[in-house]
Amino acid sequence: MYLKNNIMAILVLVLSIFSVSCKGPALSQKGKTSRQVSSPALAGRELPASTARYTDDGKRIITIGTWYDRFYVSKHKSIQDDPRMTEPVTAQMQLDAVRRLEAKYNVVLNYVNLTFEGVQESIAVSIVAGAPDVDIYEADLQFGIPAALNNYAISLEEMGLQDTDVFGSQTVMKHLVLTGQQESFLFTPSSNGATSAYVLAFNMDLIKAAKLTNPQDLYDRDKWTWEKWREYLRVLTQDADDDGNIDIYGFSGYWTYLLSNLLLSNNTGIAPGLTETLSDPKTAEVLEFINTIYNVDKTARPWDRSNWEINNRLYAEGLSGFWIGADWIFNEQGGGDLPFEIGVVPWPRGPMGSFEENRHSQPQGNWYFIPRGVEEPRLVYDVIFDWMNWYDGDLSIGAMNTWSRTMYMTERNYQYASMMASRPGFDLWENLGTGFSLLPLLFSEQTPQELIAENRQIFQNALDKYFK
Q1: Which residue among 131, 205, 306, 394 is the one 20 to 30 A from 189 at the CA level?
Q2: What's the maximum distance between 2 C-alpha atoms anywhere in the chain?
Q3: Residue 324 exposed, middle or buried by CB count within 10 Å (0-12, 13-18, 19+)
Q4: pTM of structure
Q5: Residue 149 has what pLDDT?
Q6: For 300-358, how does the pLDDT look when each residue is reduced to its tens digit (9 = 90+)?
Q7: CA–CA separation, 354 vs 352, rounded Å?
Q8: Domains in the chain, CATH or no CATH each
């Protein structure tokens, strides 16, 4: 990350925001000896030994840097302090959790609304200076990923969390795996109501009529592969009325989600880190497979340039064997209200994929990280964990997933989607402003290799700029 020319103005702005938002307990700092920081941006620089803040009576103040108002924290005394509160029972449980963690850890939990842009500025300025403005950041991934890759964050492994919930059952917290990184730095609550996964949905009635094995059963036995899916697409592509035109296609759906999920299924990506991997042989396999189903087998519905939505929602008319599914898609385009049974399954495993190790979803929303320079980072994590675990591990209360569960129609469907959401990977390819599109491939205007050759340097240039 780079420091802008008006660094002093930014520092004044960020620190003034911080001081206003932290009103309440009086602040003090303990310890003024010097320390060395290992971050490359700070190599050899002497910095204050402690950036921890305390009340006058010795309580550690744990401050979250975010870009919106958070409820509930120590300054809140009533559930009515949240003007958008709609569930008084769970709101009281959340407020009670704050009181418990205050006593358990002898802390005050606070937040500072840095604004969306302010989070980026605070990361770029205060962490590089070795004195982070806050104890933990809640940030959009466009800010969190560079922080992790530039060694501005403390890894979960470094905090000794290997054998805890965040790497185990992930009942409360889940971690993000970054391609090429041996450690994890970013974490987020495991459930926020929706299920952040794009499943491979299918028409169960068509599957049964064709006397095909339920794809879910194949997945459970690690037999759900690209080649098996290709066989299914061939069988399900039909000229139903014998007029010489295909009526039902094996697959139809948004090409963006098709690409992202097949990349994950083959243990690869296009821009998952500092170096582009569009030119990786595993990525080439993905593009070759997409080319096969669209242009060789012709079992994927030809892309409609004029209407983005129709490329996926034709499933609601019974015209697709497989398509892109998600809770919001079933809600908007049809689910339990349709006259046929819908199943969902994780995406089939590619030739270089792994049943045990594949990631299954693209992360969304805000993620937390603890910046380097923070004193007692494990304490900070434990406080945030208890804050998020206001439901004490009881997912019947804490998951808040009733709507999503309903949209998935069956418990088996929901469990696959939930598993996928709990195992996110990461790929920046859609967020770099490259204008990359698969349409030249889908319309046979370019071969996979021509598409790679044209775009590989574009992606590398974009990554170089992004991580500058």
Answers
A1: 131
A2: 84
A3: buried
A4: 0.70
A5: 84
A6: 999 999 998 899 999 999 999 999 999 989 998 999 999 999 999 999 999 999 988 88
A7: 7
A8: 7-194+365-403 (3.40.190.10), 199-359+432-466 (3.40.190.10)
